[in-house]
Every structure is written in structure tokens, then in C-alpha cells.
Amino acid sequence: MGIISIKSTDNLFWLGRYVERVFTTLKMFSECYDMLIDVDENAYVDFLQKLGIPNTYAYKQDFITNFLFDENNPNSVLSTLLCAYDNAVVMRNEISSETMSYIQLAVNAMERGKESTAPMLKLQEVFDCIFAFWGSADDYVESETTRNILKFGRSVERLDLYTRFSQPAALIRKEFSILLNRLYKVGVDCNLAAVDTLMKIILEKEDIEAYKSTIQAELARLFVTTPPEYYA
Amino acid sequence: MYGLIDHKEEINRLLSRYGVKFGIYKNNEFHERLFPFDPIPRILTKNEFEFLEKGLRQRVYTLNLFLNDIYGKKQILKDGVLPEDFVYLSKGFLPPCENIVPPCKVYNHISGIDLVQGKDMTWYVLEDNLRIPSGASYPMIARDLCRRASPDTFETNAVTDNRDYGKLLKRVLDDVNTGGIDVILTPGRYNSAFFEHSYLAEQTGAVFAMPQDLFVEGNVLYYSEYSGERRRVGTVYRRISDEFIDPMTFRPDSLLGVPHLLDAYRARNVAVVNAPGNGVADDKGIYYFVPDMIHYYLGEEPILPNAPTYLPYYETDRAYVLEHLKRLVIKDVSEAGGYGVVFGRDLTNEARGALADAIRENPRRFIAQEVVDFRELTVAEAGQMTTRKADLRAFVLYGNEITVWKSGLTRYAREAGSSVVNSSQGGGFKDTWVLSR
Amino acid sequence: MQRLEFSYSMKIEFSAPVVRHCFSLRCLPFNNTWQRIRELFIDVSPHNVLTETADGFGNRILTDRITEPHTLFSVYVNGIAEIDFSKKEKEPLNGIYKYPSQHTACGPLLTAFVAEARPACAGKTPTETAQALMGMLRTRFSYQSGITGVQTTAEEALSLGQGVCQDYAHILIALCRALGVPARYVAGIQEGTGETHAWVEFYDGGYWIGIDPTNDKMVDERYLKLSHGRDFADCGINRGLFVGGCSQKQTVEAAVRVL
User: Fold this and answer.
1) DSSP string of A138-198, one letter each residue
2) Which DSSP letter does residue C98 get?
């Protein structure tokens, strides 16, 4: 097993989260985009609300372009991807140059998408890169701990977004069992009280939807992140 | 080789995929720039490389003797080989490092020696970089891509593989290791050579650390792991400059350093690569005396000459410099990275007058050199072949023995006619081939 | 020979807890041929793995890193020393003490001072030169605390015309070096009770000789030497670094009693 510092576990966890955030957000965005075409030109309002992002967009096209590509808006997909990049670039030696290159390629694809007249077509490349990223992580990341922390981050993010977008309870339960499974493997500190609460809701409650905000809050404190004085 | 030229753009694209970048600060903002790659290599024949290798070993060996002497007995000063002003007034001379004997007595584990070749094919040493020379990662990664782009080229030319740099570096780190893990210490993500730091960590398998991951206790350097365990560090290859490495001794406001690192190093509990204090030996003023050092320490003739250099500190040299200012290049000894270098011919009469006054006022601050008429190398520029001035940074590794890396970083100037090849000034790079026959 | 009892005590109170507190203390007196330490008691609280080491100037340092949160840091050192100048031995000169340093570079005022002093010092021995310079300094510099700080350079202090022992030492060092007499900064404790003291050593005939410009006299066997260096920056008695805390209050009491 590799030698890994507190800061590195933090970077890996957030790398997993941000990559997944880009991925699932884009998936949900594609559905929303389809509705925007000829079903409901205000569909994005509901979309933003689910994500908990303030609606700062004037109209449909403003939303489409800027939600995807506005680098100055921290909530945009591009900004999220750049956050993934920031966490990946300091982890090159752990995740390998090869795995790292897919994040770089995804950034390049997003930047080309910004210039494209058909950005939705370009986004396919971003999906491809993310799939390749995970494939590469499985193949090239030597340390099991590293892989587990990355994927733990992915599970947490996925569960959060699935809840926000009211995905079927069965899907949420399935994702949660993956997360629990990872949790045992990860070998990093987790907030056990949060795990407990999540288990009680997701596995036992009929109406998961009603507990949305509790689930989100518990997920947020699940991973014990680096204490702030560490950075001082 | 034409296969390489045809694929220039694609190779550059792949380089960007691997994040081959360097950082640059412009108007106080951090930008990452791609480092343009020209696929036409600089080619060194077997004989030519063997000649350079001999000269570089001699020079690097001597510079290490000098550093041992300067932080120890200072015999070279007592014997009057070089005026002590040049040591004691050098910014790179660090009295807190006095009397430290580094593991294996090696100071300059990684030397980047900048060479140029004149039109008459003579090689000259232009500068020694003994602190944190960077750039080895670029040709290594470029070679990998070139071999993919044009396998024929490498089938027909006997090019020595240069992708062993990580292994050579690891061997040096292990040679000087005092017992513990090898660590590469980066100041962080916003350093101009961050790409290289992380890439070398990957290539050597050394632990990649940020300053906050390390601490010293009881004169021993440790790496703190997530699990709460600590690992003893035997070698730290630090990519943080001297003044920032230990706030308890050097700049107290440094947040990049590891407190008490110098104490652990003095106690010989850790090897610091390169050793702190090396700046005294790669000072532009000290450079003038390297040939004398070779005579003094080895009793040998220097194999590689310096570019013809004058020291205004000496009256005869000063008179010569002031008289021929127009055709010389003047360097401020305290600047680096292509800054503080002016060509007399580029100056207006007024500016030249001001420079002459500055030299008279503070002669110790400057050196002057004849402008070496560089041999130009062919580059492929927008499908056309043209030429650019280029230098060669040779990497010399010093652990239990001295090894010259069979490659090097060839940098070329962005503009035709210009001799400024620094990447921070917009230059590009080439691979350097050493032929095995 | 003089027998001295000495003590040094320092307390820092932090208004909020600090962690990861690293420190280097230069508060252990030299133990050499002419300053023999016969007894030594050290108490540093809190501490972790207190380590004695040395720096590039040959000073003794105590170092440590306290990880536990704490609001009080205290250091207490005391002991018995025997000072005997007749046991001083010749020492080789390190060239660093001939050249200006961070705090002792000559600006226009010091340069003018040097020009003025040069004729008076012509042909004199280093000892006579240092004494002459000390005499001249007295006429244009007076003791006053609260005017200068730890960052004040010799040139700045001279322009203010007032300062403390550190400033006297810096100015005299700058003058000596400019006139070709190697000189270094000394931190230590003088007879009596109060703050720590600073003076100068200059090099004459292979020996380092102490001179105290603040008190206008040569250093005798009633001074206890803690550290030396190019200037104040090399001799900080407590150099520390920590995370947390808001404000801090430091109290120091140093004493030398002749036995």
C-alpha cells in the first residue's frame, strides 16, 4: 500500500465527488435540455431548484450556455470540472499520468464545447473521458486505498444527486449499499453517527423523499475532512 | 525523422494531454502555459557526447569539492585562488550552513549545466545551475511520444533511451539516504515547475509531499500519514528554494518550509537534495573562477571552457569592458532566469552610459561576456524549415558516482536571431538524442 | 577567574491556545575553555522531545515542536559559570565577520561616520580602533528604549540617534567592519537583574575580544555569553512559530550574580 497523507485523502475524496458531480449533473442536464427544446422552456427553474443553485439566469439560452461553460460562476459544470482538475493535478503520482490525462482531456473538451455551435454534441466527449477516467483508475491506480477513497467520493456524490433529483427509492438503496460496502473497505475515518442515521432512513423508511434534506446533511458530514488548522 | 516533423502538431497535442506545462506569473496572476515542442532533435554523436560527459564530470566533481571546501576549511580562499569577496558577498552563500557535512559529502546531486555550441562547433559552459535545476521531465515525456509517432526513426537511428531519468534520480536519492523513505517536496500547485515535481514523483516512486505533510522531531524528519503513523524520511528532494526551506533559520515568514529541517540535516539524519547553500557555487561571479578551481583542486586543464568572460572587479577587465561595452553581453550576477541580461549592442547610447556608470559604481555586481555566435538548430515552424539559436541543459547526477544523463533539455529561442532561450521568455524545447554509435 | 550564578527565565502567555509550536532557543551559555559551565538546570514547559543541537555559528540551541494546545510557554535556565579570560585560545577567523550583514549594512550616515573616523583610526590596532569608535559613538547616540525595534538596522538607529544595546552593537559592528576590523554580535547577560544584553566582539591577533558600547567599557569576566553571529538575526534568544493564538505577552528576566 502506498503512503498517503491527510491532505491526499482529502484531494482524492473530492476528486471522486467532483468527477461524479460533473457526470450526473450532465446526465440530468441532458434530460432538462430535451424538455427545454419544445416541452417547457422554464424547465431549468425546477432543475436549478433541485440542485439548490440560485437562478441567476435571464432566459433559457442564458442558462444553457452559462450553466455549462461560465468559468466565473462556481456552480457551472466547467467550474466543477476545474475543481476536479485542481484535486487531480496534485495527485498525479497516486493516480498516474495516464488517469490524470483524462481529466485534462475532459477540460479540453469542455473548452472546445464552449466554442462549438452544437455544444451538446461535444459533451459526449466529456462523458467518454469520465468513463475512461474510471476505467484508467481501475487499471493504473496501484493502491487499493487510493481507489477506494476515490470511489467513496463518487458514491457520496451520486447518492446526494440521486436524492436531489428524486430518483426511484430502489436506485437510491442500491447506491447506498454500494456506499456502505466501500465504507468498510476505505479505511479512513467516517462519521459513524451519520452512517447510522442514513441507514435508518434509506433502508427503513418507506418515503425517502420526505427525508431529503436530512440525507443531504448527513452525507455532507459523512467523511471526516482535513481539520482547518492543518492548512494554516 | 520526417515522420516526426509531419506529426509535430499531434505530438504537441499529446503533450498537452499529459499536462506538460509550466506556470508563469504575469501581472501577479498564475497562468499555465504549454511548452512548445519542436520534433527535430538535437543530435549528439557518441564521440561528441563522450567528450561532453568527460568535461561535465570534471566540472561537477570540482564544483562539489568547492562547496565542501567553502562550507568547511575554505582552503581555496586562504590560497588566494579567488577573492573572498565573491564568496562572502554572494547571496547564495549561507553562513547557517557552515560546517555541515552532507551525507556522502555530496552537495550538487542534480546539476543542470547550460552549454552552447559556437559556430566553430566549440562547446562552452554558459551557466551552472546547482540549486533546483528543472527541465528533465520534458524531453523524457516527449521521447515517449516521438517513439509512438515515428517508430521508423528510432529503428534506423541508434538513439540511446533517455526515459531512465527517473531511475537515475531514484538511485541518487537512495545513495545519499540516511535511513527512511525518499520524499519529493513541492511548494505546491502554483509553482512554475509543479508539473515536473509531480511527474518525477510518479517516475521515481518517491512519496510526493507538501510542506504541511512533514515535520521534525528530535532532529529527525518525518512524513505524517493519514493513519496517524509517521514515517522517517531519509532523503528529501526539495523543490523549494533555500530561503524558504526552514523558517526557523531562514525567512521566518515562509509558509512553504519545514521548521527545523536544517537542524535535522546538520545532525546528518536526513539528506537534503540539493544541499542548501549551493547558490554560492552557481553565482555568475563565481562562474568566472570555475576553470581556476579545476586547476586548483584537480591539477587538470578544464575540458569544457567557459564562454570568454570578464570581471569588472579586476581593473584590467573593467577597462576592457567599458571600452567594448557595445559588443559584450552584461549580466547582473544576482538575477536568474534570463532576467538581468543585456546586450550592449541593443542599448541606446544613453542607456549604455548608465550601464557603464553602474559598472564603475559597483563592479562586483556584473560580469561581461563575449557574445558567443551560437550554432543555430533547424526547427519546423508552420511547415517551413528555419533556424533558431538554442542551448543545451545537461543533467548531471551525483550520488555514489557521477552520471551524465544521456539526453538533456535543448531550448530554442522563440524569435529568429534572439539568444534568449528561457521558457519563461516564450522559448520552446527539443529532444536531445545521444547516439549509441 | 570569576564565578557567576546566572538565570534566564521567559514566559509567553497566549490569549488563545496555540498548537504546532516550533521553537529554537539560544539561551544555553557557551561551554568552552574560558566560560566553563559548572552547573546547569533547564526547564521548558510544555515540551515534547526537547533536543539540544548547534547552529552554523557554533551556538547551542534547544529545539522542539509542541503539538498539544497550550496557552503558556515558559523557559527557565540557571546554573554556575566560571569565566577566565586567561584561558582564551586563538581562533581562526571566519570571513563572514568582515562583511556587512542584513542589519549592519552602511547607508549614507554610517558611510559618512566611517569617513570621519578613518583618519583617527589610521595606524591603530584593532583594539584601539574599536575603543576609538566606541568613544565617538557615545557622543552621537544615547540610550533610550521604545524608539527602535528588533528589525531596526544600524543605519536606521543612527539616524534616530537613540536606541538600546542591540542598536549600539549593530552600529559599532558596522563601523568596525567598514574600517577593516572583523566584528560580531554577542547576546548574553550582564551583571545584575533585568533584560538580556547585547555587545560586540572584535578580532585582534587571533582572539575575539568583547566590548560593550552601551556601557562604554570593555567586557570583563562578569558577562555571561549566550550566542554570537553576524548580527541580531543570528542570535535570537527565542525564535518560534505556531498556529493559533491571538495576542501574546512575553516577559523575560535575566540575572547574573557574582559569587
Assistant:
1) HHH---HHHHHHHHHHHHHHHHHHHHHTT--HHHHHHHHHHHHHHHHHH-S-B-HHHHHHH
2) G
Task: Please indicate, yes or no, whether residues B328 and B388 belong to a single structural domain of this protein.
Answer: no
- The pLDDT of B306-322, averaged and rounded, is 94
pLDDT at res. A227: 56
Point out the residue among B188, B207, B212 whose CB comes nearest to the CB of A3: B207
B74 and B96, same domain (yes or no): yes
Does B248 contact C24 at a Cβ distance shorter than 8 Å? yes
CATH topology for the C90-233 domain: C8orf32 fold (3.10.620)
What integer is the mean pLDDT of C8-33? 95
Residue A205 has pLDDT above 70, yes or no: yes
**Is A215 a member of any domain?**
yes
Nearest chain B residue (CA) to A129: B17
C2-86+237-258 CATH, one of 3.30.70.20, 3.50.50.60, 3.40.50.300, 2.60.40.2250: 2.60.40.2250
Distance CA B87, CA B382 (A): 48
Q: List pLDDT tens digits, range C196-231.
A: 999 999 999 999 999 999 999 999 999 999 999 999
Show the cell assigned to A171: 436506485
Total domain count, chain B: 2
Q: pTM here?
A: 0.89
In a domain, A1, yes or no: no
Sign of the Cα pseudo-torsion (C218, C221, C225, C228, in order): positive
Q: In this complex, do C55 and B249 lie within 8 Å of one another by their Cβ atoms?
A: yes
Average pLDDT, chain B: 92
Question: Mutate which of B77, B98, B265 to test chain C, going by most C C-beta atoms within 10 A?
Answer: B98
- In order, the DSSP letters of C209-246 are EEEETTTTEE--TT-EEEEEESSGGG--SEEEEEEE-S
Q: Are residues B366 and B379 in the same domain?
A: no
B150 and B282 share one domain: yes
In this predicted structure, the answer to whether residue B332 has a pLDDT above a threshold of 50 is yes
Residue B357 domain boundaries: 308-370
Among B19, B188, B209, beta carbon nearest to A104: B19
The pLDDT confidence band at residue A1, using thresholds 50, 70 and 90, is very low
Alpha helices in B215-259 (DSSP H): 242-245
Please report whether residue A163 resides in a domain.
yes
Residue C115 corresponds to which amino acid?
Answer: A
The model's pLDDT over A120-148, given as tens digits with 9 standing for 90+, comes to: 888 999 999 999 999 999 999 888 888 98
